[in-house]
Amino acid sequence: MLKYILTFLISMVPIVELRGGIPIGVTMGVKWYYAVPICMIGNMIPVPFIFFFARKILEWGKDKKFIGKFFTWCLEKGHHGGEKLKAKAGKGMFFALLLFVGIPLPGTGAWTGTLAASLLDLDFKKSILAVTLGVILAAVIITAATLLGCSAFSAVK
């Protein structure tokens, strides 16, 4: 039971998300067909909170003594990433957000994509749908890579 809880919690962590949750879960012995939905749910739970509250918290903390620099950096990074995404996407913002979340590269994912959507004042429902579909895409890519990596590792033994 602990390995399922850890898999779930790992997928909620920023930066790591399900990109780390699925391989770690499978490595701990969670079957991939259990790890995928567990990680997808864990990855999506913070999304509405990020959309509605992260911006307010970051703006509140940007002028505080100890946390100000980090909060300012987060706001600038989110705004810069969002503007860059918006410039490239034009009218295809929904698909750009989906791909931004879905293609597992460093600095992308549900947390960053949702923060960018919030900072850009995008529509909540469309943003959540794009992020959800992006998480599904990331889960497919990471699961395939994990299973290929595990089978290659098994072949070497």
From TrEMBL:
The chain crosses the membrane at residues 34-54, 94-116, 128-156. It holds the Pfam family Sm_multidrug_ex. It comes from the Bacteria. Coiled coil: none annotated. The keyword Transmembrane helix applies. Keywords: Membrane, Transmembrane, Transmembrane helix. This is Small multidrug export protein. It comes from Ruminococcus flavefaciens 007c. The lineage of its organism: Bacteria, Bacillati, Bacillota, Clostridia, Eubacteriales.
